[in-house]
């Protein structure tokens, strides 16, 4: 069967990138589920941002991530429910919520940064191949590589020292 989105070329680039992003996130989620991570893969960037930059308001976190505030609010709620961040009212502006990473959030992130993330990054880099050629060619190669060997398989192989 033909891939209608791929055939549309640059016209459907946004759709294609979203599809690829969804695939990467879904395949990363399989790996994180195996690690027992209590939140979706999409919720880890806010956690990492808070670890790196310290406490910040929802608005500041939204701007830092380039994600709309309602999305950050939903992610923050899930992270707080999982005990990975805490929130409180901002001093001087009782309408603003300040978010901060908890010790449990720090522990999860350090564990992932030291064990899982390097292998996921290596698997994505491998799936990207040489990255020579046009953007559309590179996207096709990445999509095909992820279709043939998902990130979980690549991560396992790479973490076991196989090439």
Description:
By secondary structure, this protein is mainly alpha-helical. The protein has one domain: Orthogonal Bundle (Arc Repressor Mutant, subunit A). It is built from eight helices and three strands. Strands 1-3-2 form a three-stranded antiparallel beta sheet. A hairpin with a 2-residue loop joins β2 and β3. α2 packs parallel to α7. It starts with a helix and ends with a helix. The model has no long low-confidence stretch (mean pLDDT 92).
Q: What's a quick, concise take on this entry?
A:
By secondary structure, the chain is mostly helical. The chain is 66% helix and 10% strand.
Rg over CA atoms, rounded to whole Å, is: 18 Å
CATH superfamily: Winged helix-like DNA-binding domain superfamily/Winged helix DNA-binding domain
Number of domains: 1
Mean pLDDT across residues: 92
Oligomer: single chain
The spatial strand order of the largest sheet comes to 1-3-2
- General form: globular
Strand content: 5-15%
Series of H and E elements: HHHEHHEEHHH
User: pLDDT under 50 segments (min length 5)?
Assistant: none
Number of E-state strands: 3
Largest sheet: 3 strands, antiparallel
Structural class: mainly alpha
Write the layout of secondary structure elements.
Elements: H1 4-7, H2 13-35, H3 44-53, E1 56-57, H4 58-65, H5 69-81, E2 85-90, E3 93-101, H6 103-128, H7 135-148, H8 151-159
Antiparallel strand pairs: 1-3, 2-3
